């Protein structure tokens, strides 16, 4: 697989497409955020200081999960977080990190996004955790995020943003978009007071219904 240049180019093209898509969705602006895709026992990741205007298949960086990379272009400063997620989560085929507005706003309170809406269940549980603040690109951030994703496909990063993974870039980007929607709707609901949260019985019914209908598999 890693020796197949056609396959590698296809992944590079996908990465460029979805990096631009994330910008079009308003989930990242300027050079904030980063995307990657698993490539055998390595990853292809957006370069440092990438923007939707300057990213190309040639600027995508091939790197190991431990941070070694090929070529003159450095990988994103958050490559340690991407690498840690791939190492700890074999089901992760792609990772998306954004600084989207509502995710950032909620993350700055460093609180778990609670189960106020049934679609919170598409992230794998009844809520979305938020890890404490750590300096960007640090090993502590990488470890905290990868640990928080053991039972979830997404988490918030305190005073920073969010990160999620999926089996494909399309699914990972959709998860990032979904979490931004959930954070926006949570903030709107809080303007009317404390929302009613789903009960354990509600979540039990949702997850069992989700298994029957493969709910969220096309998100």
Explain what you see:
The longest helix is centred in the C-terminal third of the chain and has 22 residues, at about 170-190. The relative contact order is 0.14. Strand 5, helix 4 and strand 6 form a beta-alpha-beta unit. About 40% of the residues lie in helices and about 15% in strands. The chain has one domain (about 5-215): Class II aldolase/adducin N-terminal domain (L-fuculose-1-phosphate Aldolase, 3-Layer(aba) Sandwich). The protein contains six helices and seven strands, in the order H-E-E-E-H-E-H-E-H-E-E-H-H. It has a seven-stranded mixed β-sheet, with helices on both faces. The chain has helices at about 5-25, 80-90, 100-105, 140-150, 170-190, 200-215, and strands spanning about 35-40, 40-45, 60-65, 95-100, 130, 155, 160-165. The model has no long low-confidence stretch (mean pLDDT about 95). With about 220 residues, the chain is α+β, with helices and mostly antiparallel strands. The chain starts with a helix and ends in a 6-residue tail after the last helix.
